[in-house]
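> example.struct
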């Protein structure tokens, strides 16, 4: 099938799937993902793995676009207001998740290395599904703002924790590796630092160029150029494209406030079909046949991660004296798992491929559980914003 025809059919079917999902009182993103599963290798096979690889640039661009738009919600005024709360929740929730998953997996398997690896991978939360649900229901308020900040930033924390955990895991396997600050944190810090630098530089350039432009289509063009360059450079240097585009968005939103609003207003006009294509393709990548392979290990991982996200977010919010709704419901919005977790799982495959079955078990567990968590995650977000009374509050 012609690629352009396929993209058109993908968006059309995803749109229909979203409407059906809404009729059933579910977030539209669940409909997009289910359409993707139906079209993917698991069922009808319209998307085979070769074709999905060819369309990978759509997913990369969509993730960059989503991260960029999330950046608008992290203006300095908002960050100053909730900075202490966000950082407290981010640290406590991330460490709580890492420790709880690691302990649970160790009690089940008695494998220190596997426990450390799965614990670190469980920290990452996918921002895309969360953002789309908040956008669909026009959610606005303290909980929604905090949720966006946490899902935008915790991937960076996950990368750092993985660097530490992988060093400990190698030591537990071989007993010969020496843990140093350099071999533990050098890689993650370079990845995060590089993403931040790229985002800041491109954000400054975009802001100053956009300030001289007045037409909406010109703003749209230069903004898309910045997102594409940011994503491409991140891919070349193996930096986090989500973090780089998030920083690009934050920088753009904060340098010239009025110009930033005009830029994000122009971008919003083309976002919806890109979101639909992204989530349909994400669903197509989910191979249902792998779910039974996760077994008890995968079930324990899902349950422990869910409890840890809820408990860790609640504890962090309590310690920082956040609002009651944040303490009670924030964790329900942190279930989603996709991009960074799967990306780190691929790193595990590369780094631990020679250490027996550890890499295979880790990759299988993360891939299988992602299928379930990508369905559960949007429902959790909807539950959280419903209970907090923030649906329909965005202007």
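> example.seq
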């Amino acid at each position: 099938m012609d690629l352009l025809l396929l993209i058109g059919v993908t968006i059309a079917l995803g749109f229909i799937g979203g409407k059906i999902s809404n009729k059933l009182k579910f977030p539209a993103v669940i409909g997009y993902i289910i359409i993707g599963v139906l079209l993917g290798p698991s069922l009808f096979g319209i998307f085979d793995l070769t074709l999905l690889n060819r369309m990978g640039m759509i997913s990369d661009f969509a993730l960059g676009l989503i991260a960029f738009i999330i950046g608008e919600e992290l203006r300095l005024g908002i960050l100053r207001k909730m900075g202490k709360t966000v950082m407290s929740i981010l640290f406590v929730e991330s460490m709580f998740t890492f420790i709880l998953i690691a302990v649970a997996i160790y009690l089940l398997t008695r494998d220190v290395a596997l426990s450390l690896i799965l614990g670190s991978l469980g920290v990452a939360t996918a921002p895309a599904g969360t953002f789309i649900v908040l956008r669909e229901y026009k959610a606005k308020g303290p909980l929604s703002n905090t949720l966006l900040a946490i899902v935008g930033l915790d991937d960076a924390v996950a990368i750092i924790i993985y660097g530490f955990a992988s060093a400990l895991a190698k030591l537990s396997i071989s007993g010969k590796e020496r843990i140093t600050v350099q071999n533990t944190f050098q890689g993650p810090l370079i990845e995060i630092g590089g993403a931040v630098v790229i985002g800041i530089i491109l954000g400054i350039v975009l802001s100053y160029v956009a300030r001289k432009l007045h037409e909406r289509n010109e703003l749209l063009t230069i903004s898309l150029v910045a997102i594409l360059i940011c994503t491409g450079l991140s891919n070349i240097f193996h930096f986090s494209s989500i973090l780089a585009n998030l920083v690009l968005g934050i920088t753009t939103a904060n340098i010239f406030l009025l110009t930033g609003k005009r830029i994000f207003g122009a971008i919003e006009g083309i976002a919806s079909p890109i979101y639909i294509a992204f989530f349909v393709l994400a669903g197509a990548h989910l191979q249902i046949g792998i779910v039974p392979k996760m077994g008890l290990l995968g079930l324990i991982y899902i349950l422990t991660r869910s409890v840890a996200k809820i408990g860790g977010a609640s504890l962090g919010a309590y310690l920082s004296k956040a609002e009651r709704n944040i303490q009670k419901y924030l964790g329900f919005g942190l279930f989603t798992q996709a991009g960074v977790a799967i990306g780190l799982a691929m790193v595990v495959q590369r780094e631990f491929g020679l250490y027996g079955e550890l890499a295979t078990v880790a990759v299988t567990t993360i891939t299988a559980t992602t299928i379930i968590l990508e369905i559960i995650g949007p429902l959790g977000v909807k539950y959280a914003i419903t209970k907090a009374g923030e649906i329909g509050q965005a202007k």
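> remarks
The chain has one domain: 56-268+297-361.
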